[in-house]
Design goal:
This protein has helices at about 60-65, 160-175, 200-210, 280-285, 325-340, 345-355, and strands at about 5, 20, 30-35, 40-45, 70-80, 85-95, 100-105, 125-130, 135-140, 140-145, 150-155, 215-220, 220, 235-240, 245-250, 265-270, 270-280, 290-295, 305-310, 360-365, 370-380, 405. By secondary structure, it is an alpha+beta fold. It folds into two domains: about 5-295, Acetamidase/Formamidase-like domains (Jelly Rolls); about 305-405, no CATH class. Strand 12 and strand 13 (about 220) form a beta hairpin. It is globular, with a radius of gyration of 21 Å. The mean pLDDT is about 95. The structure holds zinc ion.
């Protein structure tokens, strides 16, 4: 039987679990050790450690303390792993915890985290999604049901001291360019809410002062939020410290490309069954700076799409130069406007783009001055016909059901 090397108890605070951490630092002790060729299971909290509840009140999303996230299970030490190796991780399977067959999507208040479209949706809102085996649906967004493409939003190995110092320096330089911005440009180390696994005392305090926040993806992988890095994938991670120190968390039942809503995909507590191998000296052999991976052979087949285009011209009509970020925002806004014609609120449309198997593509980046991005909305997830026709849109929803909202205090 495969051993469950890290267990989490959803009735216990994540900060009381010494096999869980919420910062990246080379001094975090290994939670456990395995050998190349071993397969094992790690359980994880949802990324907030249970801060978001399965109810109809979004005040938990409004009030969440984002300095506490993400709660990761690990680090797992791999015997024989050395800096310069590649750690090969097979994601053999991933699932929700049996006592927690639901997930959440939402967007933060602009005052506390924001999101991709925070200027259009500045207040905290959430949708709850129930799992039926492979499938999910939401009481807050009727009319859709789809199969999950289950994946970890966050997985990676511990940085070495030099890499950690590099991260902190370059992100602080960015923050210093506009230190009062809301939301902030980046999140610097924050010792008060750092949880560093088994590390205690003076060693804990020293690591808490410089431990990197888990929000951005970095060279080691980390919070990449790639929906296609799903169960059945094989990932090749750069190794920076002896033992590698693999950690995982932020499990998603499903996510649209970009995880645009930030809180987040369909977030869940669950388990990951994985197997590890090593490629000695693999970083130099293959020229690897960032992880590479092979996708899963098991992917839900949603092959019919309505594709929305966006270009780098903002709502005021101002021309921007090859701005892919703006072009993708415009593609998303165009899709939301379309969904509203079928009775969805803007919030429901936004949440759906963050949680359903939506694809985002960078379509053109050379045709000056406009970048072109596309948002691929799968039409088969809808329980009614969402395609355009001469008859015009039929309103599937009457506005009586919407996502809970919590205004700033
Ligand atoms: Zn997430």
């Amino acid at each position: 039987m495969t051993d469950t090397l890290i267990k989490v108890d959803l009735t216990q605070a994540a900060t009381e679990n010494e096999n869980v951490h919420n910062r990246w630092h080379p001094d975090i002790p290994m939670a456990c050790w395995v050998k190349p060729g071993d397969d094992f299971i790690l359980e994880t909290y949802d990324w907030t450690g249970g801060a978001i509840k399965n109810d109809d009140d979004a005040s938990d999303v409004r009030d969440v303390d984002l300095s506490t996230v993400h709660y990761l299970s690990g680090p797992v030490g791999v015997q024989g792993a050395e800096p310069g190796d590649l750690l090969v991780v097979d994601l053999l399977d991933i699932g929700a915890k049996a006592d927690s067959l639901w997930g959440f999507n939402g967007f933060f208040s602009k005052q506390n985290g924001g999101g991709f479209l925070t200027d259009y949706f500045p207040s905290a809102q959430k949708s709850i999604w129930d799992f039926e085996g492979l499938f999910t649906k939401s009481r807050h967004i009727p009319g859709v049901r789809f199969a999950g493409l289950i994946h970890p939003g966050l997985i990676g190995c511990l940085p070495d001291p030099k890499l950690l110092a590099n991260w902190n320096a370059r992100e602080q330089e960015l923050i210093d360019s506009n230190p009062t911005r809301v939301p902030p440009l980046a999140n610097p180390p924050f010792a008060a809410t750092a949880h560093l696994g088994k590390l205690t005392g003076a060693a804990r305090d020293a690591a808490a002062a410089t431990g990197a926040r888990t929000v951005p993806p970095r060279e080691h992988g980390g919070n990449c939020d790639i929906k296609d890095l799903s169960r059945g994938s094989k990932i090749f991670f750069p190794v920076y410290v002896a033992g590698a120190g693999l950690s995982v968390g932020d499990l998603h039942f499903s996510q649209g490309d970009g995880e645009i809503t930030f809180c987040g995909a369909i977030e869940m507590a669950g388990w990951v069954h994985m197997k590890v191998e090593l490629i000695k000296g693999g970083m130099a052999k293959y020229g690897i700076k960032n992880p590479i991976f092979k996708p899963s052979p098991i992917v839900p087949t949603y092959n019919n799409f309505l594709i929305f285009e966006g270009i780098s011209v903002d709502d005021a009509g101002k021309q921007h130069y090859l701005d892919v970020n703006l072009a993708y925002q415009q593609a998303c806004l165009n899709a939301i406007e379309y969904l509203k014609k079928f009775g969805y609120s803007g919030a429901q449309g936004y949440s759906l783009l963050g949680s359903a198997p939506v694809q985002g593509h960078i379509s053109g980046v050379v045709d000056i001055p406009n970048a072109c991005a596309t948002l691929w909305l799968p039409t088969d997830i809808f329980e009614f016909d969402i395609n355009p026709s001469a008859a015009g849109p039929t309103r599937y929803l009457d506005g009586s059901i919407d996502m809970p909202i919590a205004y700033d205090k």
